[in-house]
Predict the 3D structure of the following.
Amino acid sequence: MNNNKLYFYIAPYLIWMSLFFVIPTLLVVIVSFIDQSSWDTIITVIRNFHPNIKTDGLFVALQKVGEQVVLTFTFDAYRELLEPRVTVTIFRTFVISLISAIVCMVLSIPTAHYISRSSQKNTWLMLLILPFWTNFLIRIFIWIKILGNNGMLNNFLQHLYIISKPLPLLYNNFAVTLLSIYICLPFAIIPIFSAIEKFDFSLWEVSDDLGAKPWQSFFYVYLPSIKNGVISAFIFAFINTFGNYAVAKLVGGQSSYVLGSLVVHNATVGRNMPLAAAISTVICSIALLLMLCNYPKELKGNT
C-alpha cells in the first residue's frame, strides 16, 4: 500500500482523534496554567458575548473579547496540588486504585485460565460481557441494595445470627474499592485471556516431566509467558479506577473523596477550573506514562 492510500484510510481516524482527544486535552493542559483571575475574566466575557452581539454586532463583540481577555499563566494550580487536602485525596485514590488493580489481576488469572481451557469458552466469554448490556447506574444501584444496612447481605448474615447489627458496607473506602473491582474485573480478564490463548501448554507438560512442582511451573514457565497480558490487565484496572468518578460519587462518603470527585467539585461548586484542569492533567499524565511503560513490552509480545 502506497503512502497516499495509507493517508486516505487513516485520515478520518486522525481527524476524529484530533478533534475529540488531542485538542480537548491540550485545552485542559492550557487551562491548568491559566491564572484564576484570568479564567474568571474569560467566563465573564463568554457570558457577555451573546448580549454584546445583540447590542453592538458581531465585529464589535469580537473586538471587546480581544480587549478584555488578557491571559496570565502561572503554576498556582500545580502548587495547590501540594496542599494537604489534595495530597490526601491523591494518596487515597492511589491506594484504592492499586488495591483494585492487584485484586483484579489476582482474580483474573485463574478466571481467564479456566475460560481458555473450557469447552464452553464462547459461553463464558458471553457471560463475561453480559453485564455491559445493562446500564452502569442500574448495576451500581443493585449493589447498593445488596450492601445497604437493610440490604440483602446484612439481612442474610443477621438471619444466620453471624452478626447482631448491620455491617457498614456502604459509603466508605471499602465500598469504593469493591465496586471498582467489580467494574474493572472484565477489563482485566480479557487481556489475560488473550495472552493465555497464545500460551503453548506443552511447555507446562515439559516442565512437569522435568520434575518441576506445579507452583514452579506456574511462576517460572506459565506466568512469564503471559506477563504482557497480566501487565495490561493491571494497567487497565489501575487507570480505570484512578480516573473514575461515578463509583465514589454513588457509594463513597465524605471520607472516600477521590481525584475524580475533586475535579467535579472544583469545576462546579468551587469554580476553580485551573485546579480541576491540573488534576485532570495529572490523571492523564499517569495514564499516558503507564501506557508508554507497557508499550515496548507489547511490541516484544507481538514479535
User: Anything to note?
Assistant: The longest helix spans residues 84-117. The chain has a mean pLDDT of 87.
